[in-house]
Amino acid sequence: MPAAAARVVLVTGVSRFLGARVANTLQADPGIERVIGVDTVPPSMSLGRTEFVRVDIRTPGIAKVISSAEVDTVVHLNLVSSPSVPRAKVKEFNVIGTMQLLAACQRSPDMRKLVVRSSAAVYGSSPMDPAVFTERDEPVEAPTSGYAKDAVEVEGYVRGLCRRRSDLTVSVLRFANFLGPGVDSPLTRYLTMPVVPTVLGFDPRLQFVHEDDGVEVLRRMTVEDHPGWFNVAGDGVLLLSQALRRAGRPYLPVPAPSLSAIGDMGRRFAGLSGFSPELLRWLTYGRVVDTGALVDELAWRPKYESAAAFADFVSARELGRGGPLHLFDRLSGLIGRG
Which residues have a Cβ under 8 Å from the Cβ of 336 and sit 6 or more positions away? Predict the structure, then answer.
């Protein structure tokens, strides 16, 4: 779809991996005059010609940046999901920060476009879920805590901005879990635990989006006009058991109440600060989203299927070399030899 040229683009969360990659991709577009990256800490990787501004989007300082630079396009990637950050601070970044950012966008006469990274976690995870969620579906059990609830609130504020500034082109992207060589997340830390705990009696269906495809979707939404809400995921699904076998990870099914305690043990082994409630429910019931609207809108399909995204992650981490290892199988073998 033809789009008004994005001249000055502001990217939030630019010091994180996804923000840095998106900024580097956008700055290569000759039609974009300036790319401004904002975050609370300096970036650890080179941003090229992207201009870094240290500012906290929870403060009025973000409005000054948008106004003084005459920003016409905002790519909001500054949603925090890490359980290693105190929950109160996470909610401030996600909700209060978004409110301040959207208020600045509303007041700016230069603003033309907003692209928001959201999450498929807004659908929740429940035993009563439909087989596949479309963008029109409401969650059977709405998220009540954590990052998922934050994402729901963020989308609510974005809808409010759409009502107040109907002239803006607004794209909201509900991403499945990112995977790839450069991704470090609660999910990747879970998958690399020495022994991976799973929920006894459940084998959830999972979807992933490769980091390269995620960056490409964000690029297209920025340089083209595609208003609306879109699910983003690689084609196909993987069962959790399939994923762990392909990664060669030893895994141990445990009762659901025990999983959180085992997750706390992961702090010593994998840097995993426990399991968030939304991650626990996802590891129990899974979630699958329909991406037909995105494919139709962009006339484009992600390069990596969910299984291929997982395979690239496994290859980059050099997992899977020992073959599939089920802890019960190993224990049975030892008992048999005894």
Answer: none
Residue 49 CB burial class (10 angstroms; 0-12, 13-18, ≥19): exposed
Whole-angstrom Cα Rg for the chain: 20
* Cα 302 to Cα 175: distance, rounded to the nearest angstrom: 12
CATH number of the domain where residue 56 is located: 3.40.50.720
- Domain extent at residue 166: 8-178+208-233
Please tell me the distance from the alpha carbon of residue 293 to that of residue 229, in angstroms, as a whole number: 9
8 A C-beta contact, residue 120 and residue 224: no
Determine the length of the chain.
338
CB 256 within 8 A of CB 284: yes
26 inside domain: yes
- Confidence check: pLDDT of 325 > 80: no
- State the Cα–Cα distance between residues 112 and 5, nearest whole angstrom: 10
Q: Pick the residue with more confidence: 80 or 322?
A: 80
How is residue 146 written in tokens? 């954590």
State the Cα–Cα distance between residues 109 and 112, nearest whole angstrom: 8
Partners of 252 in beta bridges: 197
What three-state secondary structure class fits 308?
helix
Q: 51-79: b or e for each residue (b if 16 or more CB lie within 10 Å)?
A: bbbebbbbeebbbebbeebebbbbbbbbb
Per-residue pLDDT tens over the stretch 110-142: 999 999 999 999 999 999 999 999 999 999 998
Q: Are 310 and 249 in contact (CB under 8 A)?
A: no
**Is 78 among the domain residues?**
yes
Is residue 293 assigned to a domain?
Answer: no
| Concatenated DSSP letters of 158-192 | HHHHHHH-TTSEEEEEEE-EEESTT--SHHHHHHT
Count of CB atoms within 10 A of residue 44's CB?
A: 9
Pick from 149, 72, 137, 77: which is nearest to 104 by CA? Answer: 72
Q: How many domains does the chain have?
A: 1
